Structure to design on (428 residues):
């Protein structure tokens, strides 16, 4: 395999890609790569793209004009990938590059998927004692969500874990009559209850050091409680508390809430989506710990997640995600008029499945009160009409269909009526 100049036949000016890197590229392309493969390949693709290079494949030998791959960026999924130039010579049928690249969303295996989040030590912990920190890679910068091609910091994954445990990523079914119930205090109650089942350190439940408004921090109640608890804190762990705040603005180091603004010592982390100017509100998880004796306890780091609304903390990535969620909500009302209950779960973590993991956009549960029939289906929202994107999602759909019914809707087709009709079609 070679790097060649873009817009050429790839027969000249070749720079060979080493065997090790080529093997990693094949694993990554076919969906079997590990994290190191992923990093190496994304770096190769980014560099090739920046330097106007294509990749030429050696599957037809050294002499014949080679099949070509162009490094590409899929903005809808914020991911880098290799696009086969199908107007150029075809790869040999046995070549791993003969087929399109495995979809990024189903690339992780169960072993290295985001489920690794609560596997390593099972602790809801985002601040380590200095010696430990020196002994290992900083865990808050590990690139993990390959589908987005950006790092989801550990704090972000902890926030998602908490949301998942609390069911905050679910558009719950409607009450039998009247509008949806729900308030920020009820949502926070669900989250605090979920926090009882998570531990910051052995024997220290998250619920004991989780605060849901800025006042507790400003009045230094967070600090006082933490100082008192620190005396009994398991000594190999760093004492820490968490702030879970609904924010109406986030600057680079400030969380702005209705009850006060909190400064964070380091730059506030997010998926990069906020740079695309997503409207508030955000749900922010901040860790409070001691960076140095002199400074005492301060909000060290924070992760900001855009959410549907101030009383529904379903994570959203772009403003149009909110439109999709609103259409799904309105579909709940349409279906209720026909005595059909619907709940919608936004999928945050991969669903382990055979040797791969899959992650549809939503899982939808239906219960027909007329017949007692229940069913579940996966919903894909197709965000682009780009041919490669659609090909990737079609492969994902094939995988998902082994788990149960799957529906796919183009972004422009996501209206309450069409969602309701899709649900009815799956029930019948
Ligand atoms: Zn080939």
């Amino acid at each position: 395999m070679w790097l060649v100049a873009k817009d050429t036949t790839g027969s000249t000016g070749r720079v060979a890609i080493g065997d090790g890197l080529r093997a990693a590229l094949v694993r990554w392309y076919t969906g079997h790569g590990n994290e190191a493969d992923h990093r190496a390949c994304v770096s190769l693709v980014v560099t090739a793209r920046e330097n106007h290079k294509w990749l030429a494949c050696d599957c037809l030998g050294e002499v014949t004009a080679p099949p070509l791959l162009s490094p590409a960026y899929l903005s809808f999924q914020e991911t880098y990938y290799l696009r086969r130039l199908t107007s150029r010579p075809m790869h040999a049928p046995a070549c791993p590059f003969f087929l399109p690249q495995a979809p990024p969303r189903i690339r992780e295996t169960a072993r290295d998927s985001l489920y690794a989040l609560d596997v390593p030590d099972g602790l809801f912990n985002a601040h380590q004692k200095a010696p430990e920190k020196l002994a290992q890679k900083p865990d808050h910068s590990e690139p993990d969500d390959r589908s987005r091609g950006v790092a989801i910091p550990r704090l972000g994954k902890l926030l998602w874990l908490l949301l998942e445990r609390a069911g905050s990523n679910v558009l719950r079914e409607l009450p039998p009559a009247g509008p949806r119930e729900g308030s920020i205090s009820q949502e926070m109650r669900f989250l605090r209850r979920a926090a009882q089942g998570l531990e910051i350190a052995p024997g220290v439940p998250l619920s004991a050091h989780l605060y849901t408004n800025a006042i507790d921090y400003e009045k230094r109640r967070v600090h006082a409680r933490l100082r008192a608890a620190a005396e009994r804190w398991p000594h190999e762990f760093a004492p820490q508390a968490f702030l879970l705040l609904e924010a109406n603005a986030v600057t680079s180091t400030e969380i702005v809430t209705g009850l006060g603004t909190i400064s964070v010592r380091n730059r506030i982390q997010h998926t990069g989506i906020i740079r695309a100017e997503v409207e508030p509100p955000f749900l922010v998880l901040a860790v409070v710990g001691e960076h140095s004796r002199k400074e005492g306890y301060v909000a060290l780091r924070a992760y900001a997640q855009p959410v549907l609304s101030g009383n529904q903390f379903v994570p959203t990535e772009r403003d149009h995600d909110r439109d999709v969620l609103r259409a799904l909500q309105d579909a709940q009302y349409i279906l209720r008029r026909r005595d059909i209950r619907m709940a919608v779960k936004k999928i945050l973590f991969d669903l382990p499945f055979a040797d791969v993991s899959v992650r549809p956009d939503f899982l939808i549960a239906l219960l027909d009160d007329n017949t007692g029939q229940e069913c579940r289906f996966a919903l894909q929202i197709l965000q682009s009409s780009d041919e490669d994107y659609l090909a990737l999602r079609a492969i994902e759909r094939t995988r998902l269909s082994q788990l149960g019914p799957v529906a796919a809707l183009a972004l422009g087709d996501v209206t309450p009526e069409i969602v309701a009709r899709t649900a009815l079609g799956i029930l019948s």
User: Anything to note?
Assistant: The two ends are 51 Å apart (CA to CA). The longest strand covers residues 297-309. Residues 105-121, 131-151 have pLDDT under 50 and may be disordered. The pocket of zinc ion is lined by residues 57, 59, 67, 91-92, 95, 97 (CB under 6 Å).
